[in-house]
Amino acid sequence: MSASQMRVFSIGWMAVSPSRKYLIILTLWWLFLRILDKYLYKELFATFFAVLSVLLLITFGTEATKLLAVAVEGTIPSSIIFKVLLYKIPPALEVILPLVALLSVMLAVGRLYQDQEMVVLQSCGIPTRYFQKRVFWFLLPLALLTAWITLWVTPWSYQQERHLVAEAQVTSPLAAWCRENSTLCRTVKGCFTPAPSMTTRPVVGLVTIENR
Q1: How far apart are CA 10 and CA 17, in angstroms?
Q2: Which of 2, 23, 149, 182 is least buried, going by the fewest C-beta atoms within 10 A?
Q3: Is the dihedral of CA 124, 130, 134, 139 positive or negative?
Q4: What is the pTM assigned to this prediction?
Q5: Within this chain, do residues 75 and 161 fall inside the same structural domain, yes or no?
């Protein structure tokens, strides 16, 4: 390749967006893999995404139940539940990703042994060290991704969540009052009433309803 062609290639590469650069690199990497490498990585990634989907669904269900309970108590407005739930994704991934990586390797390699594929591959002269290297290159990006989420994304999500809740409580005085007086406020049929330990004097801005 001549110098002018290299110059044109470098200018065109600099004009490509970062996301497309990553996509191009991954595509070239996948094209130059051997057939056995593609088969192993396909098994690992398929198991990884299947386990990740199940664990994320369980985690989201638990967090959504907790947030709905808090919203019913009046601590946070119900309009921001979905946004708060999205900000809880990075802390959940911080815990889930290592577990998902372990389970995906165990399930994928275990299936190879169960179907006698590993025995056939080893009888063809492929050593165990070959599989160890492929598993290492599969786990390395996941380890870097987990470190990035732990060190940068999770603190950012916590900060954004606190800012979102504080901003929502400023626009919703009732939620802010219930947050500051959580031991004095309870919910009865969707209406806020003072607890028995409170005086009969009504609180300004709230409607008191007596239990009959």
Answers
A1: 13
A2: 2
A3: positive
A4: 0.68
A5: yes
